[in-house]
Amino acid sequence: MDEPLDQTGEMPEGEMPDEQAMEDEAAEQRRRVESLLSRRLADAVDARQQSGIELIWQEDEDQYNGVDELNAPGNLSPSQLARKTEGPARGQNSKRSRVYLNITKPKTDVAVSRVQEMLLPHDEKPWELGPTPIPELAKAAAGQEQREVQLPDGTTAPAKDVAKALMFKAEQAAEAMSDQVEDWFVEGKTYAEMRRVIRDAGRIGTGILKGPIPCNRTDKNWSVQAGVAVLAEQMRLAPHSVAKSAWDVFPDPSCGENPHDGAYIFDRDYLTGRRLRELAKLPEYDQEAIADILREGPRKRTRFDDRESREQDGQIPTFESDTFEVFYYYGDLPPEELLAGGWKIAGFNDGETPEELTEQVEQALQLSTVAIVATMVNERVVRVSLNPLETGEFPFDFFQWEPVDGQPWGRGIPRKMATAQKMLNASTRAMLENAGMSAGPQVVIDRERIVPANGIYEITGRKLWYWTPGDEVKDVRFAFASVMIDSAQQQLQSIIEFSLRMADELSNMPLLLQGIVGSQAPETLGGQAMAEANATSPLKAIAKQFDDCIVVPHLTRYYAWGMQDPNVAEEAKGDMQCRARGASTLIYRDAAAQFLPQLAPMVAQPQFRINPEKWMAEVLRGNKVNPTTIQYSDEEAEAIAKQQAEQGPPADPRIEAAKINAEAKAADREATVQLKQQALQQNAQESALDRESDLLIKSMEREIQVLEFAGQREITMDQIRAMLATKSMDIRNKREMFAAEREFAVTDGGGRGL
User: Fold this and answer.
1) Which of 70, 335, 479, 513 could form a disulfide with 446 if both were Cys (CB 3.0 to 4.6 A apart)?
2) pLDDT at 204 over 90
3) What is the structure's pLDDT at 182?
């Protein structure tokens, strides 16, 4: 019965409304909100299932794993097989070949690993934070404004100096914020989650990265107090990112290509009963609702990813155990509905009654909606909190390997080469079946006249057959014959080669990109560089897609988190913009690795303004070498610089070159003098030998004449001529030897002089 009202329609003084009625009204409001969220969840689940994308994902996963209707696991039901394919199920024709040449998996793995290597290198960040460019500051820093600016302390300074100081401060803040975000990325293993996103996109077409989401981290520090080591633990709140499976994300059906254009998005997770009981101990969770959910048990109606079919025979289905489906709702709701439901909204009203609302909450009530995160289990809301980002954005980024118009879901490599994979399987199986049938003859027997001796109609070696001749069949060859089936191996092999070639074309993964150089690849360096550039062009488009869909929006939300986090130093905060470096810098590193060494002669020339240290670092990175592992540390570089300063400035290279040239000329003059002296000595020696040989010849001739006149016949004329020839040969050899020594001395002296 309603409470009595006075004539003004207000409650008489001293009387309070019925608490039970207020509780019933709050419970009714809770049911209305839960019903609203349940309807939105049902719409999102049904819309995704009816779109056919789940069947595409299942087929892509099966193709990647090398599974089809003929070699599927034996524990699949006929209905599950019917969802996978329209062909015959396994066992209906057991004699058919079930070979599956899985070319999808290696091509997918190569493409994924190549994109991961290009976009997420181990030695450099794939992003950067920089100050937002301000044209007025840039103009003033360039000295285009010759005016004075008044500082806060009342003094004045040139606009150029003030602009440079402000720009330097902005760069310092951007560098500090970059270090903070990089620390969050490394601590939360965000890069590993990004690699998983790329892998999911390559396999089923869509990868999803969720973050930043709040996460409690524990810092452990050891300290020694009075000789005893003490471990101190401190909890802190930090952002975290995680890769989500596309099976577990349900966007608004009306979002179109961008999930952020929708009104809401659901994220699914799984919790055991034990974990759910632990959550009930936290103050922000509804303990009464969790108790009711535990009594009800888990509901399974929203599971459409067919995971229960993955269990092997004899195993207990994992998803049939005490596992609850948990849905996190990200969207907007009117704040008055949430307050009327009595939820304790973390960071909003903290359980205060409407009469005790602070001024901040009263102002928020004037808004149409408020961005919240609601946790639902069994269609019951167990927790409501504000979106951790003040911008109200959904913490989800979708990466499509190949975007599809009008859908947030993309298509991966298995979908692109599905036709080629089916062609390859069909042709390979047909070739093997044809090889089996054409390997042996087909036997034709007249059963009335041909009877096996053992009574079994089977072809074996050395078997005895009985033949009864007749009037119509008088030759056994007309009652017993063998027929060979024609072999079509060559024709089927051409189909297999065509399927492999089409797989390369349809997947945009040519053999050159897989490290296989064919006969048609150009042999020149420029030709190979051009062929590689053409082969990697599809991956460059994928890299640009990753930068636009993952790196920039995800980094922007981390920047927003840092701006609103009170634990981040004020020096790191400022107006900044996020830029991705994958498609613009990292992807061209291979080409730069070939081009940068060619700049070596120009590095030392000051007019080109090339920093040798940075140039060498880029050359090393292009060759997959981390520069920091081989470069001097800061302390070593300072020590070397100090040592060089103590030794004094190096001499002028031009003076050193002049000294070297003067020394070389002096050495040449000295060598020339020595050569001339050696030549004079050789000439004198040769003249002396010539005179000696002439005298010897003349003396020999005189002795011959004496012998002839004296009539001595003891020595014949032939012997005398031989003696003269020997003497002449000795003289000639000595002359040639002296000439050779002179030539060697001249040549050797000239070489030393040079």
Assistant:
1) 479
2) yes
3) 93
Distance CA 522, CA 544 (A): 28
**What does DSSP assign to residue 551?**
I
Q: What is the chain's Cα-based Rg?
A: 46
Residue 297 main-chain phi, psi, to 5 deg: 90, 165
CB 347 within 8 A of CB 332: no
Quick check: 554 and 197 in contact, CB under 8 A? no
Q: How far is CA 210 from CA 240, 281, 307, 720, in A?
A: 9, 26, 22, 116
Cα 289 to its chain centre, rounded Å, is: 44
Residue type at position 188: G
pLDDT at 404: 92
> Are 507 and 111 within 8 A, CB to CB?
yes
Q: pLDDT digits over 87-145, tens only? A: 444 444 567 788 999 999 999 998 898 888 888 887 788 899 989 888 777 777 777 66
**How far is residue 464's CA from residue 366's CA, in Å, rounded to a whole number?**
102
CB atoms under 10 Å from CB of 594, counted, come to 15
Return phi, psi of residue 604, to 5°.
Answer: -80, -5
- Measured between alpha carbons, how far is 166 from 136 in angstroms, rounded to an integer? 12
Tell me if 458 sits within 8 A of 519, measured CB to CB.
Answer: no
Q: What is the pLDDT of residues 4-52, one digit of tens each?
A: 444 444 445 544 456 777 777 777 878 888 888 999 999 999 999 999 9
Q: Max CA-CA distance within the chain?
A: 186
> 3-class secondary structure for 494-517?
HHHHHHHHHHHHHHCCCHHHHCCC
**Which has the closest alpha carbon to 388: 348, 351, 423?**
348
Say whether 267 sits in a helix, a strand or coil. strand
DSSP 547: I
Provide CB contacts within 8 A for 427, sequence distance 6+. Answer: 492, 495, 496, 499
714: phi then psi, degrees, rounded to nearest 5: -65, -30
Q: Cβ contacts of residue 403 below 8 Å, gap of 6+? A: 257, 410, 545
Residue type, 373: V
Whether the per-residue pLDDT at 63 is higher than 90: the answer is yes
Structure tokens at 300: 């399974």
**The whole model's pTM is what?**
0.72
Where do runs of H (alpha helix) occur along 297-417?
335-340, 359-365, 413-416
C-beta of residue 410 within 8 angstroms of C-beta of residue 400: yes
CA distance 112 to 205: 11
E-assigned strand segments in 446-559: 450-452, 465-467, 480-483
Question: What are residue 576's DSSP bridge partners?
Answer: 131
b or e along 689-725 (b: 16 or more beta carbons within 10 Å of the residue's beta carbon)?
A: eeeebeeeeeeeeeebeeeeeeeeeeeeeeeeeeeee
The closest alpha carbon to 582, from 63, 78, 121, belongs to 121
Chain-centroid distance of CA 394 in Å reads: 25
Task: State both tokens at 337.
Answer: 């509905």
Q: What is the pLDDT of residues 526-566, one digit of tens each?
A: 555 555 555 566 777 888 899 999 999 999 999 999 998 88
How is residue 630 written in tokens? 């081989």
Q: pLDDT, tens digit, for every residue of 674-690?
A: 888 877 887 777 777 77
